Amino acid sequence: MQLIIEKTIEGPFLKLVKTAKKNGGGIIILYSDKDYRYTPHPEGAVIVKSNQLLLNGTKLLYEDEYNNYESHPKGILIEKYSQLFLVVA
């Protein structure tokens, strides 16, 4: 007998898993440090720590003050002082 447990997962983590699956698998690093946050990105995840935005925790995309950011297929969009900047990965 095989026990199958189905659980619905929603939110950013599910998007990360779907991205990894679509790209042929890979490693998803989850940070347990409460100072870290992560959001999905077409190439993996953007890891946020204070004023640094890192792609997959290794490639520094941006380091400075910002108001908000969003993932973009070419990198990330930075909102700073009511202006938008595209930072290419």
UniProtKB/TrEMBL annotation:
Protein name in the entry: Uncharacterized protein
